[in-house]
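Dear Dr. H.,

I hope your travels went smoothly. While you were away I took the liberty of generating a structure for the chain from your last submission, since the lab meeting agenda had it listed for discussion. I wanted you to have the full record in hand beforehand rather than looking at slides cold. The sequence, exactly as received, is reproduced here:
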Amino acid sequence: MKKTLLLLLLATPAFLASAQDNKTPFLTKSLSASAVKDVFVRTSGGSITVSGATGQEPRIEVYINGNNGNNDLSKDEIQKRLEENYTLDIDVHDGELHATARNKRNNIDWRKSLSIGFRIYVNRQSATNLTTSGGSIHLDNLSGSQNFTTSGGSLHVDNVVGSIKGTTSGGSIHVSNSKQDIELVTSGGSISASNCDGRIRLVTSGGSLKLNDLKGTINASTSGGSISASDIDGELVTGTSGGSVNINNMSGSLDASTSAGSIHASMVKVGKYVKIDASSGHVDLRLPSSQGVDLDVRGDRVSYNGSGFQGEKDKERVVGKVNGGGSLVEVRGNGSVSVTQ
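The corresponding predicted structure, in token form, is as follows:
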């Protein structure tokens, strides 16, 4: 049966709190009888949280505060502003939850504008499609397809399995304990990723990257920050246009580059290849001592420290085989290059 909750129902006393703050929902609607499988949310100025954590009663909570920093609006004042300037709809039918908060017109007085956010508790298998123009997005304990975007807030993802695609135009990204297919992009914030597995793509245009305990195929890049990675197992393709790169305890294939910094990389095990390119900084590469590799190392000043080498060495290059040869290790640097094995 179709269940629709419209703005008029907001006047019902049972749904209203006497004062609004970030911890008290303006409205709570039970979803226990709805068997929600798909969550669709659109809001113009608030944050969105969707959780599939066990032990929570399925429900949707609506949080409303003043955009001008006033979080103590009375229920009457909120109701008045909603009726004058906003449309708020919550619709549940055929396994779908649709929650929408939108402006009635474009010229709302900012002093009377509202931030309308949602916290939604559903079963773990629920999929999401979420959009907000001015708040953060939080997802946890979900599996399935998750698509979400914000124009001005951060993204937080924890314990999510499946297809994960999120974008933000002006916030940071934090993802942890998640796996399968992860694609997260920000135009102006840092990214941290930990304990994740699968195909992982992380992109920022203006922040740093911090990667820890990742497995799979990882592509992580930044246009204006440093890169720090540790305990990576798989294939890592990473690069920055404006910072240094530090990689520790890497097992697998590595492609690392920077246009304006140094690169430090420590390999536990070399996979199919290692490729390092530093346009204007030094390179410090440590390779596993017993593994056979083919070396092609070039720079302004090149040094190699290790045993079992056969090939050619001079001030600006080291080319040859170590321990009989193996995967290609290719290093390019415009500064000093040091390789230790």
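Two observations you may find useful: Residues 1-135 form one domain. The chain is about 5% helix and 60% strand.

With kind regards,
E. W.
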